[in-house]
Structure formats: C-alpha cells, structure tokens
Amino acid sequence: MGRISQRISAVTESATLAIDAKAKALKASGEDVIGFGAGEPDFPTPGHIVDAAVAACLDPKNHKYTPAGGLPELKAAIAAKTKRDSGLDVAPSQVLVTNGGKQAVQEAFAALLDPGDEVLMPTPYWTTYPESIRLAGGVPVEVPTSWQSGFKVTVDQLESARTSRTKVLLFVSPSNPTGAVYDADEVEEIGRWAVDSGVWVLTDEIYEHLVYGETRFTSMPAVVPDLADTCVVVNGVAKTYAMTGWRVGWIIGPADLVVAATNLHSHATANVCNVAQRAALAAVSGDLSAVEEMRSVYDRRRRTITGMLNDIPGVTCPPPQGAFYAFPSVEGLLGRPIAGRVAPTSLELASLVLDEAKVAFVPGEAFGAPGYARFSYALADSDLEEGIGRIAKLVAS
C-alpha cells in the first residue's frame, strides 16, 4: 500500500509554472535571466478594479460566507458580459464562479466524466488539460496538429479519433500554447459535428479578447445554438484584465451540470474570496478600454517576436493570431552543435539555452508537441528583444 494515492502520484507539476519558478529563482540568486515561461500579463490590474477591491475589504458583508456558487450580482454580470462579448444568452443560474480558470476546467471535467470516458484533446494542449481529465477518471485522446495545418484540427480528424467511449471534445480558440484562432466557419463546422455525433464540447474562452489584425473570436455555442444542452464554457478574468493572482474564473453550462459542479464546489472550497469576486464584478461590468490598450501592446510584441524568431536559422514561427504566445518549431536546432553542446530534443534545448544564454522558455514536450517551444510575449519589449537576441547569438556562436 503506497503512502501517496496512485491517482495523485500520477499528477505532474505544471511545466509552465516550474519553468517560471526556476527562472525566478536564478534571477533571485543574481543571475541575469529573462523568462518567457509564464502566461501572465505584465501589466498591473486596472485601477478601477483595484479600487473596487479596496472598498470591498472595508465592507463587513464581504467578511462572511457567501453562496458557494458565486455572488448573485457577479453571476448576473458574467451572464451580461457573455451576451455582450460573444452573443451567447445565458441565465445567471447557469454560471458557477470558481477559483480561477484551472478550477473551472477541473470541476467541469469532474461533473462530466465517468471512469473510461474519452476526451478528444487536440495537440498542442495547455499542460493542465490532460491532468484534469485524468483526475476525473477520463482518458485524454490526443488529436495532433502542426504549424503546417495552422495548429487547427479538422472534422475528419475528430471523426477518425471518435469511439464509442468518446464523451467530450476539448476546444480552445484562441489557443494556449499556439495562438491559433479558428474562424467562424471552422467553429461552426466542428460544433455541428459535435451535435451530430452526440459529443459534449468543453470550450475554453479565456483568451477571447486577445486576437489580432483581422482575426475575430467566435464562441461555438453562440454560432451553434443546438449545443446549448451539451456545451460547457470556461472563462475568467485572469488574462483579459491582468488579474492572474486574483483567482476568479467561471463555468457556464446547462443547469443540471452547473448544479452538479456547484455541489462539488461547495465541498471543495465553498465561495471564492469575496474581495476577489467584487473586483471581478468591476472588471466584467466595465468597458474594455484598458483591455484594448493591453491588446495593442501585445500586438506590437507579437510582430516583434515573430520576426526575430524567424530570423534565427533553424526556427520556424507562424504568426500567432491570438493569446500572447509564440510557438515556433525548433526542430532545425536539434541535433546540431550549439555552444559546444548538442540538444537532441526541445526539452534538452530549453536546458541548454537556460544554461548558456540565461533565457527560459517552455519546451514543446510540456504541451504534447516535441520539437516546439513556447515563448510568452507578455513581458517588457526590452526584455523580449534582449532574450530572443541572446538565443540568436547563441545559435550563431
């Protein structure tokens, strides 16, 4: 009999947070490290949101327990924001407020999956998805994509991967880690396939406002209303409003699923911190002017990092259409001498670059995509240019 349960022993540490922690530890020890690891906005939370939190701290009603599923006024505001931003009509009763997007993903899968149920999971994927699926007893089924396909999965691929045990399709657009965004026709086609196949959809919309150029975000349940009873939306304030540390996310779904997830939530954590909920209320109820300012900066950095990476021989970086990540193929750097060393995998390349150039990025293995690398461009322009410049210099040495 083991000391630690097999279920929990099988869970691996978040690779993105591990890389970020290592980079910060090296920096704290005096090393001049530039980190491209964490997917975290480098902007402060907008002032009006912070002001709402300060006021909430002084209000005694926020010092007590509140409904486990979320403050009624926040749930109503999330429903209104969802209609405003994606065109999806939902009732406040269809909303569960969670401790960030990660808990939303985990509780949604826990409410959906029985042991052995399969989840179609296009790769590359965010590191938390397969762990949440397995914790719920499900089986993640990888459906591969590549930069040549725009990191998008097709209906034919999904149909080929579907079995009698397939219950859920995980759909993410804009994508972490690739920055890929499906256009409206592609979203609708996949949604229609899910309806016709009797497959649930869990769609993660956390990066909905971070799209660039002519690209537009499309919410699958908004364009495929027939999914209303078999679609779960997860979202949150972290990326859009620079509120990663506030830990407020949510689930939107059919009433019976939200009730089930709320019951689980009531035993797991009860209500999300009331001060954070009040801050989130100010965020989702306000306009998007601060968001647009941040998006404009990300767009500039997106173009800079894409150009600089493509200038490195052996690196191929398709321009990301959304989120704030570049996801280049680094296969051309593998197996060749760099600073007197050879890295046969992107995992070993990441270690080499951190050792030799003091630059941290997340290797593609963390996302089910060996041969690739993820660079967050949510960092200062000067650090971005210095960091990619160091890699270019290292490769040329």
Keywords:
Aspartate Aminotransferase, domain 1; three-stranded antiparallel beta sheet; seven-stranded mixed beta sheet; 397 residues; 2 domains; 42% helix
Describe this structure in words.
The protein has about 400 residues and is of the alpha/beta class. The protein has two domains: about 5-45 and about 290-395, Aspartate Aminotransferase, domain 1 (Alpha-Beta Complex), CATH 3.90.1150; about 45-285, Aspartate Aminotransferase, domain 2, CATH 3.40.640. Helix content is about 40%, strand content about 15%. It is built from 14 helices and 14 strands. The chain has helices at about 5-10, 15-30, 45-55, 70-85, 100-110, 130-135, 155-160, 185-195, 220-225, 255-270, 275-285, 290-310, 345-355, 380-395, and strands at about 35, 95-100, 120-125, 140-145, 165-170, 200-205, 230-235, 250, 325, 335-340, 340, 360, 360-365, 375. It has a seven-stranded mixed sheet, with helices on both faces. Helix 4 runs parallel beside helix 11 and helix 5 packs parallel to helix 6. The longest helix is centred in the last third of the chain and has 22 residues, at about 290-310. The mean pLDDT is about 95.
